[in-house]
Design brief:
The chain contains seven helices and no strands. It is mostly helical.
Length: about 210
């Protein structure tokens, strides 16, 4: 009888051990599931944080970009020739006069860039601020972590008249623009809308990488 009772208790004990193991496995599985769900929640929160950071970074960049672009547009609209009446030749019209000055200063056996350098020396007080603002506007986009930088440089390009693009073309070949600005002009195709029939372009057309015009 005692042997039978011991057998029963042993069986129950074994069944209890098995049941405990089953419960433990279920608890481990549940714990693993909770860990996986927690990891997914943390990943989702991390993705949300990154997304918020990207949006915040983009917002800060765009605020600075559009304020600087507005400054550039206003600066261009207020440009004037210092040797003419204050209310004459305002805005983008000055660039057509600039091109005429460069063309008319035609000396035998002198390169277009040499003529531009001499022209710039006489107009530096008018063009210096213009080029500094334009260069820093493009550099702002270039150094940012924003995606699709071409979208923003295309907005800059859209604000340049044909005459401005030609002046920019010449300035990029000068001692002031060759090292820093010219590579950005080539990277972001700032000369895409240049008038390739213009005399000043044809005299120096092979001085830029093709990407500057694409």
């Amino acid at each position: 009888m005692f042997g039978a009772v011991n057998s029963v208790f042993s069986g129950l004990a074994f069944a209890g051990v098995v049941y405990a193991i089953v419960l433990q496995r279920e608890e481990v599985a549940m714990a693993k599931q909770e860990i996986d769900e927690t990891r997914k929640i943390l990943e989702a929160q991390n993705d949300l944080t990154k997304s918020q950071q990207v949006c915040q970074t983009k917002q800060i960049f765009e605020n600075t970009f559009f304020q600087t672009l507005q400054l550039f547009v206003r600066l261009t609209s207020e440009m004037a020739l210092s040797d003419e009446p204050a209310n004459d030749r305002l805005g983008k019209g000055v660039f057509k006069r600039y091109l005429q000055e460069i063309i008319s200063d035609n000396r035998p056996d002198e390169s277009t860039i040499a003529r531009y350098e001499r022209f710039y020396e006489s107009r530096a007080h008018e063009l210096g601020h213009y080029f500094r603002v334009l260069y820093n506007l493009v550099k702002l986009v270039h150094r940012s972590e924003i995606e699709e930088k071409r979208f923003y440089t295309n907005l800059i390009r859209a604000n340049l008249s044909d005459d401005e693009v030609l002046i920019l073309f010449l300035n990029g070949l000068s001692v002031r623009g060759h090292e820093n600005f010219k590579p950005l002009m080539e990277e972001y195709a700032l000369l895409k809308n240049i008038d390739k029939t213009h005399l000043l372009y044809s005299s120096s057309e092979n001085t830029y990488a093709p990407s500057a015009f694409e």
